[in-house]
Structure formats: structure tokens, C-alpha cells
């Protein structure tokens, strides 16, 4: 058991993210995605992750406020919230990424 603990610690040092990570890293259509809830992460951390992993898309949430912005060559997306919007107008929203075209949208959900 002690040997496994040491190995996990070394893996954690090499990965630079926790072993039981709050991040999801995915490849789709040749693009690199990282998805993270958005709490306990600074703008500096986001910049570092984008650069280190050469991300094409960084998807986050937590604030429940929609956002699409570009950092270096990465599109940072917060789709907002489908039910608990924190926008001033309280309109809920979802996000869409069209990987082939590179199109990114946040769509308002009005009843």
C-alpha cells in the first residue's frame, strides 16, 4: 500500500493537477478541451492551464453568467445556467460548440 501512495504522489507532481481532479480533459475532432466547474480557480490558473495543455476550448461555469472570450488561441466559455441564472435579466442559457466550424454560441432559454 505504501508503494501505491508514493506513486500517486509522484504522478500528481508530474501532472500538475490533482489525481482526483475537478478537471475533465478531452479530445474531439482534433481539438483539446478542458472542462472545470469554475470555483477555486483564478484567471492566472486558467491562463496557465491553457498554455500548458495547448487548449482550444476551456469550459467553465460556477458564476452562472454566460461568457465567451478568447485567451491566446483558446476560447473560454461559460454557458450560464439552464435554471439558476445570475444574469441581471434572469434569462437562463446554454452553450453550444460546433467543433467542425469552430462556432461557439450561448443561446438564451426563454419561456
Q: Would you kindly provide a written description of the structure presented here, covering whatever features stand out?
A:
The structure is a single chain. By secondary structure, this protein is of the alpha/beta class. The protein has a single domain (2-109), classed as Purple Acid Phosphatase, chain A, domain 2 (4-Layer Sandwich), CATH 3.60.21. 23% of the residues lie in helices and 35% in strands. The protein is built from two helices and seven strands. It has helices spanning 2-15, 43-53, and strands spanning 23-28, 31-36, 57-59, 67-71, 74-78, 92-98, 103-109. The chain has a five-stranded mixed sheet, with helices on one face. The termini are far apart. The relative contact order is 0.13.
Pick out its properties.
alpha/beta; disordered N terminus; Purple Acid Phosphatase, chain A, domain 2; 5-stranded mixed β-sheet; 111 residues
Which spans have pLDDT < 50 for at least 5 consecutive residues?
1-9
Count of β-strands: 7
CATH architecture: 4-Layer Sandwich
Mean pLDDT: 84
How many domains? The number is 1
Amino acid at each position: 500500500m505504501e508503494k501505491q501512495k508514493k506513486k500517486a504522489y509522484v504522478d500528481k507532481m508530474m501532472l500538475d493537477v490533482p489525481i482526483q481532479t475537478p478537471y475533465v480533459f478531452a479530445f474531439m475532432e482534433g481539438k483539446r478541451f478542458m472542462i472545470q466547474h469554475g470555483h477555486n480557480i483564478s484567471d492566472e490558473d486558467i491562463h496557465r492551464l491553457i498554455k500548458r495543455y495547448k487548449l482550444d476550448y476551456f469550459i467553465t461555469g460556477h458564476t452562472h453568467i454566460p461568457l465567451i472570450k478568447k485567451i491566446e488561441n483558446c476560447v473560454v466559455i461559460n454557458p450560464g445556467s439552464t435554471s439558476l441564472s445570475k444574469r441581471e435579466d434572469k434569462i437562463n442559457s446554454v452553450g453550444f460548440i460546433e467543433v467542425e466550424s469552430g462556432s461557439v454560441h450561448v443561446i438564451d432559454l426563454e419561456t
